[in-house]
Write a structure and sequence with these properties.
Shape: globular
Strand content: 5-15%
Number of helices: 11
Oligomer: single chain
CATH architecture: Alpha-Beta Barrel
């Protein structure tokens, strides 16, 4: 497995396993299968409702904790105590308890909404205490990311954002590289939208390499130095998604994929007022 080095020296596997939209009752089996296939980087979130199942799978696997890289995410805090920093620490402790762990490898602010500056101050303390080896953000557009960096002590190690062939985020990645932030892709397959798995450009490249379209997409991201966390509940697909380190896309092929970029989200816009209100109205502990 190839690793990337985060801005604080922590090593992060460039390819991991995500559990978004895997039902809680199916998550333990899926994660056990992923670990058996060779994954050592797992990504979950409080809002996914399956942290406990991820933790149970890790415990059942018998794999030493030090061999794993585990990420979870902080949902928007609504400060029932009146103190967002206290509530952030409480949410972090709740996630650790559900996972059955005493530290995280990466803790992310899930949404760029609410009082995320207070959340970040609490996360900086958690990082200094060694309970989160690295801290970062998710879904931050460049303006909010730069503002957070410029007014805080610790630069986010990671920004996990929608990144796939139809929304490639090249300019966002360039800005992150300048600021020392690692880009991480969610939704690498665009959930099959725009007929990704039968796209003629991706299909032709896959045929040239004797690989699947999914493998080509993952390889394209990895060659761009993008960390990626594909999801599957099928063990054969899990294994296939790991098998992307024995071929290389040519410059021409990378260019053909670059031409697929639409420059727009296929899911939702974090700057849309209706979406902001919908996300802000959701509650998770």
């Amino acid at each position: 497995m190839h690793n990337v080095t985060l801005n604080n020296g922590v090593e992060m596997p460039i390819l991991g396993f995500g559990v978004f939209q895997i039902p809680d009752e199916e998550t333990q089996a899926a994660v056990e299968a992923a670990l058996a296939a060779g994954y050592r980087h797992l990504d979950t979130a409080a809002s996914y409702g399956n942290e406990a199942a991820v933790g149970a799978a890790i415990k059942a696997s018998g794999i030493p904790r030090g061999e794993l890289f585990v990420t979870t995410k902080l949902w928007i805090q609504h400060a029932p105590t009146g103190n967002v920093q206290e509530d952030t620490r409480r949410a972090f402790d709740n996630s650790l308890h559900r996972l059955g762990m005493d530290y995280l490898d990466l803790y992310l602010i899930h949404q760029p909404l609410g009082d995320y500056y207070s959340e970040w101050r609490a996360m900086q303390e958690i990082n200094k205490e060694g309970r989160a080896r690295a801290i970062g953000v998710s879904n931050f557009h460049p303006d909010r990311l730069v503002d957070l960096i410029d007014h805080n002590e610790i630069v986010p190690a990671v920004n996990q954002i929608e990144t796939h062939p139809f929304h490639q985020r090249a300019s966002d990645q360039n800005l992150m590289m300048e600021r020392g932030v690692q880009i991480e892709s969610w939704g690498p397959f665009a959930e099959g939208r725009n007929n990704l798995f039968t796209d003629p450009v991706l299909s032709a490249i896959a045929e040239e390499h004797g690989k699947s379209v999914a493998q080509v997409v993952l390889r394209w991201l990895i060659q761009r130095d993008v960390v990626v966390i594909p999801k599957s509940v099928r063990p054969e697909r899990m294994a296939q998604n790991l098998d992307v380190f024995d071929f290389t896309l040519t410059e021409e092929q990378m260019g053909l994929i670059a031409a697929l970029d639409t420059g727009a989200s296929l899911f939702f816009d974090h700057r849309d007022p209706a979406m902001v209100s919908w996300l802000g109205g959701r509650r998770y502990s």
